[in-house]
Amino acid sequence: MKSLVRQRKPRHERITRINSKVARDINRAIILNSVRQHQPISRTKISDITRLNKSTVSDIVATLIEEQLLAESPDLRKAIGRNPRNLTVRQGRHFVGAISLNSPTTSIAIVDIDGTVRARSELSTQSDTPRDLIGRSMKKLMMMRASVGTHQFRGIGVTVAGIVDASQARVVYSMNLNWEGVDLEALVREQLADVEIVSAENDAKASALAELLLGTHDLPSNDLVFVSFGVGIGVGATIHGRILNGYSHAAGELGHMTLVEGGRPCVCGSRGCWEAYASDAAIIDSYLSRKGKAPGRPAPTTIEDVLRASNNGEAEARETLSEAAHYAGIGIANLVKAFDPEAVIVAGTPKLAWDIFRPVIAQSVEKNTRLRHHTPAQVLPSSLTEIPSLLGAASLIIGYVFTDYRIAV
Amino acid sequence: MKSLVRQRKPRHERITRINSKVARDINRAIILNSVRQHQPISRTKISDITRLNKSTVSDIVATLIEEQLLAESPDLRKAIGRNPRNLTVRQGRHFVGAISLNSPTTSIAIVDIDGTVRARSELSTQSDTPRDLIGRSMKKLMMMRASVGTHQFRGIGVTVAGIVDASQARVVYSMNLNWEGVDLEALVREQLADVEIVSAENDAKASALAELLLGTHDLPSNDLVFVSFGVGIGVGATIHGRILNGYSHAAGELGHMTLVEGGRPCVCGSRGCWEAYASDAAIIDSYLSRKGKAPGRPAPTTIEDVLRASNNGEAEARETLSEAAHYAGIGIANLVKAFDPEAVIVAGTPKLAWDIFRPVIAQSVEKNTRLRHHTPAQVLPSSLTEIPSLLGAASLIIGYVFTDYRIAV
DNA sequence: CGATTAGTTGGTTCTGTCAACAAACTAATT
DNA sequence: AATTAGTTTGTTGACAGAACCAACTAATCG
Question: Which of A229, A251, A212 is nearest to A391 (CA)?
């Protein structure tokens, strides 16, 4: 029997119709973004790019200047005709709080809306409860705020290594922190109730957004894949400049993608996962077995030890890293086939040993996409000057301020 | 005489800003879609769902009825209050031409805007030149049109097994047809110059759209992955109801995803590709080697032979298919990790031997996503009653008519 | 039992408001 | 004078809101 009661639609199916307010919001975001991407830029140029009427641009720009999101400065170029009045994203007025939750270290920053880091701090993370860790982080953030002299945060962004329901700012599951079902928004608001936005996201996904908004690579398509190699492997993709979330918030959980059917056993219980070959843990294991050493004796070997040995020219270390690069390359080639991004951005150990990883990965991608009759995706090291997941946390809010709209049917 | 068909912007014009016309178009599409998804539906219900004002809905619906895209019929339910006037997508007025180019058979159909197939035909494809094959297909389509008694096509949709630049209706490369750089729009317009839309797309991608628009599975999220197992393996993903294209039109070219590093050699020159384990070609090879037979003697073995043998209970055939199912499952599990869709839709050989494939694939997906703390993606056989790529071709136009807008920053 | 009236829901009409646009204008510069 | 940047003014189009009309059921009453 058909029920007469209309079921509440899940959030992702929400239909957004256009009315004058929504239209204004969208055009506002378009203008804000064109300033961000092309600054310094004049009103007339914005009008050319966006095809919005000059008067419309002037009108919206006026409100953005009033909101202190844009700043105006004269252009001193010597050209015929009236000089343009340049527009830039205004610094020093809008700040975001960024928290990258991780074990053993949680990073905290205050970031200007233009991406400049204003303050930076760390906490050592013991096996805190969610409330304790968020509480400590927020208190730290508020202390930093006092010293920076900012009054309010535009929003608080939080990243977590794990599965995060960004639509609810909720940690579904984090192996790293051993958390499950944590409402981050509520915990943040316990400390700072009146903040405008609280946003949370998986670290690799947010890092992809950071690379797009704050990185220096020129990626006009806004289609990229970010791969973070660390204890595990995290992947985040952006499609048309938006994070690919997935139906159950788990798109890009590719650390356990099968690369070698029946291969090395993995911590996940399966075999032949990418992480079993190209993560820091795998590198360390492989290095130790090459050296004929048992783990943890005399002292635990870290990834830094391997990198140091490699830099000193030690053969075993270099072989180990080459092997990891081989598997990193196969995995990345698979990513390229799946998402076909303009570029794959790599962070973590491969970036630290880029001379070893770059050629191997590039060759693997090229070889595997040879049939496709076009130039293969670029593989680039992350251009971010801070921990990607921390700038990622900031990007969540910055992205929200700059492009706060969504149309879906 | 006033044309039924609204005059529309050229297809490739990228909409950036919102003005009143764009707003109207978007709201129009939202209403049209809500009718398509919930029909029969009243104006008031549309207003509830879309949050558009009743007066706005009435206004837009009036134009849609005038365009003969919607039809009105009284509701005969006995409930208190005035009876609603039900709206449905109107049949018999708007038709699309659908062409699925393939070797050795090209399929052609005339499809009503609501997805009903009105006429259906096939051509055997020799090694035609692009112009010859499109010419023959279009002539056939025009003959069929005469017999169906339709006057004009709303658009022509074409699918190809290969890489297609949908934004230009251009085949970048098709191994199957041995085509490269073919401007399909131009070739179609040589035969039928005045058609409103010519749209082309990769077969698997279009099939995904067909499953969404015309399939019977209930997938509210509009995030799905379609996997077509045939001579090769094709993958198409939809994100929020839109095809994931990729930067170089090659997203989802996952037939050559590495699953078994260093495994079976593949036609592509690499090793351990998915296609080398789960395509029809791989199944046939595996079957023959199990039977100790050389290929092509006495007669070439086809996938139908294997399926027939399996249905007759032959052990070798069943083992072969189980093995293929195992690898299909691993590959699909990787897709689930990458895209995290609500469902994976499977077509081709696995659908034909679903009793063998379903449990193996389902187990593989479940086992591989166990760590994720949620119900795994469903794996479903295609619900389409026609060749997916043919309905896919139709869906390109139907999708265009129903949701023709794009917002990009 | 038929007529009347209240109540409910579907849909339309009319008016106000808002935002984008076009064109004419002012401003600043070589 | 020529050129380019940006503003002002009036117009247009579209959505929202509220009152209104339409169509129906259910209850009530003579």
Answer: A212
